[in-house]
Write a structure and sequence with these properties.
By secondary structure, the protein is mainly beta. The chain has helices at 16-19, 394-407, and strands spanning 9-11, 31-32, 38-39, 44-48, 52-57, 63-69, 74-80, 86-92, 99-101, 107-111, 117-123, 129-136, 153-158, 164-169, 174-179, 185-190, 197-202, 208-213, 218-223, 229-234, 239-244, 250-254, 259-264, 269-275, 289-294, 300-305, 310-315, 323-329, 334-339, 345-350, 384-390.
Length: 416
Amino acid sequence: MLRRCLLLACTASLLVGSTFAATAQPPAKTYTLHNGWKVTPAGELHEIAQMPIGVALSPDRKQFAFACAGYGAHTLTLISAQTGKIQQVLPVDSAWNGVAWSPDGATLYLSGGGQPKIHVFTKHESGQFAPSTPIAIPGLFHEQKKGLDQSYLSGLVVSPDGSTLYAGNFATDAIYAISLPDGAIKTQRKLDTNAHPYCLRLSPDGTSLYVTQGALASVSVLSLTDLSTLKTIDTDKHPNDMVFAPDGRLFVSCANSDCVDVIDPETALLRERIRMTLTTFRAPAGANPQGLALSPNGKQLYVANSDNNNVAVVDVSVPQRSSVLGFIPTGWYPTSIAASPDGKRLFLGTGKGMGVGPNSPKNFPKEKVRKNTKYVYAPGLFKGYIGVLSTPNPVQLKQYTQQVMANSPYRDSIVD
């Protein structure tokens, strides 16, 4: 592996006590979670399926496709990139984070997760999508049994010419190059053991494939022709999502290190480490950054911090001088984020809703608990949401940030 740069520009989180003294204006109703945290989701909320963990913008920049894959129903949900209104919900039997558009926008691909297939949806004259024959991945199985290669299909990306679909399989550390539209396997490659490929992205020039290797704390750069390794880039722990800036910088969210790594792809060197903790370096681990998005002009980075129930807004306009400007409150466990093509709105995907109440059945016996009483499994009570809000100005962001701080029970004095 290529060595990291020894000199890092480490960017700490802001000190809210001095920077954000303005009186907060709660952006929405506040809910109390089971663990004592509070959530105050910003924006107009649209209920969708649980865990919207993958998102992709259509080539015509009019729709976002969200992959929802929680404990409940799995769906591909299409929303307007202008208004955030839900336009279509496509149910599937199993999905995960991979969602990709064909270059002409006429076909959508969704990874099958635990099912050894990739869902295919084609656009009709009405503008609506309908399921087509899925792409089966030979040699993978739904069952988790000794001697069988289990399916857990993850990230997807389509080549610039639309002739090849690249897919990862988390469970077997494999990458596939799939011919389109026939679905034949062109090439497949097994990465290092425990690579666990999750997110796939094409390089800005469309000549190489970037793959996060979660358990190996790295990003592998592969040739599009034979999937051979061109270079390996070290990252912090558990790289999740990736996004390229217009100037070529690569941003990688690293869940188990509470940071976003900023990498120079040409040299494979780490240039910055942007911390996602709410206060200072004393704050314990637990922000869990996942989904990433950039503003259209590439000057602001948005980071979904799942375990802190917020989205960080980061000024990345000057390389190696990034700074966290503030935080936007979300519902419980934000997982994905998108910025509208005009930069005026944000779309915040929340995985678990606003908390859950008792999981007792409706006709719960008041006198005694009957032996055969059935309870709803707690994750079945979760709800997913898309929060749609105007991109906050500095004053609004100050108010949002103070609300985020008020929602968290953590204070630096706890560890003093």
